[in-house]
């Protein structure tokens, strides 16, 4: 049973010839680690770097992020390398703090239905109109996701990018099942740009290039990729993070694919 028939609907999605890359480590771990990625991202002519300072970890004993120190490292790197910064806000009480340090706020999959957080993020960004990257819940339908995003927009900020990051299914060969169909569906059902996070559904770095190529082919507006200078030493999501040389090589391939569609990576 399909909840909305999109037959014949036009693409509403923003038409731009740019694909924004949100690359960076899963977690901000140190100045040295974060700056190494920032230098690489900037050298590739990209505009944004991502990194987690407050981490929503499945296991409470896992690394929880550097908190405000992580935000300071991000802000300094953003200035040094001329990059905009994106980080996740996991808790309503951190909205103002996070907003004061970065250019974009991410809402993670575990918080898609945390409506009080969504309202607070909408309120905190209402004047600045800073970017909100709103991930799909790992067990949410597209209709639920599009309903939830209104908690942000109705509180004052419609500068939102939706992000598909994979669903929980019966499949265990990948960490999550990437719903690539969400890209054209979102373009028909909403005006929001759509990002594809290619790292969290993959779970292992070898699958990341294929998913990134597929994301461009299916018409995404942006891509999220986790990159780390030394993935085996990473404090979170080591197996799925690309090394810097792998990231450089993938970007070269993605630039060629994007060009086929008349687009460029930024
Ligand atoms: C992340 O981007 O680091 C993250 C925790 O993502 P997700 O919410 O998709 O698991
Ligand atoms: Mn991660």
Please give a structural write-up.
By secondary structure, the protein is an alpha/beta fold. The chain has a single domain (18-265), classed as Aldolase class I (TIM Barrel), CATH 3.20.20.70. Helix content is 34%, strand content 15%. It has nine helices and nine strands. The protein has helices at 31-43, 68-81, 95-101, 115-124, 142-148, 150-153, 182-189, 208-217, 244-260, and strands at 18-24, 48-50, 84-88, 104-107, 131-135, 160-164, 194-197, 222-226, 264-265. The mean pLDDT is 96. It binds phosphoenolpyruvate and manganese (II) ion. The site of manganese (II) ion has 5 residues, from loops.
Give the helix proportion (percent range). Answer: 25-40%
Our Rg estimate from Cα atoms comes to: 17 Å
CATH architecture: Alpha-Beta Barrel
Q: Largest sheet, if any?
A: 8 strands, parallel, barrel
Bound molecules: phosphoenolpyruvate, manganese (II) ion
In the residues, how many domains can be counted?
Answer: 1
Strand order across the largest sheet: 1-2-3-4-5-6-7-8
What's the total helix number? 9
Question: Using DSSP, what is the number of strands?
Answer: 9
Question: What would CATH call the class?
Answer: Alpha Beta
Q: Which structural class best describes the helix and strand composition? A: alpha/beta
């Amino acid at each position: 049973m399909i909840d909305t028939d999109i037959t014949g609907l036009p693409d509403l999605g923003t038409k731009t010839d740019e694909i924004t890359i949100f690359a960076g480590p899963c977690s901000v771990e140190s100045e040295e680690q974060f700056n190494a990625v920032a230098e690489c991202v900037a050298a590739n002519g990209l505009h944004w770097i991502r990194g987690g300072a407050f981490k929503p970890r499945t296991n409470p004993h896992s690394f929880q992020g550097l908190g405000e120190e992580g935000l300071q490292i991000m802000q300094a790197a953003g200035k040094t390398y001329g990059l905009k910064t994106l980080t996740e806000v996991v808790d309503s009480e951190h909205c103002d703090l996070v907003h004061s340090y970065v250019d974009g706020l991410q809402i993670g999959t575990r918080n898609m239905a945390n409506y009080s957080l969504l309202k607070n993020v909408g309120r905190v960004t209402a004047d600045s109109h800073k970017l909100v990257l709103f991930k799909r819940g790992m067990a949410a339908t597209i209709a639920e996701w599009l309903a939830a995003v209104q908690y942000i927009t109705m509180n004052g900020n419609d500068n939102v990018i939706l992000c598909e990051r994979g669903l929980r299914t019966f499949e265990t060969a990948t960490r999550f099942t990437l719903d690539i169909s969400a890209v054209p569906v979102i373009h028909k059902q909403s005006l929001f740009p759509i990002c594809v996070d290619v790292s969290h559904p993959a779970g292992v770095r070898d699958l990341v290039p294929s998913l990134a190529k597929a994301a461009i082919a299916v018409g995404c507006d942006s891509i999220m990729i986790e990159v780390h200078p030394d993935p085996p030493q990473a404090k979170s999501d080591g197996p799925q993070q690309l090394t810097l040389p792998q990231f450089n090589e993938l970007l070269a391939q993605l630039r060629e694919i994007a060009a086929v569609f008349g687009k460029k990576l930024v």
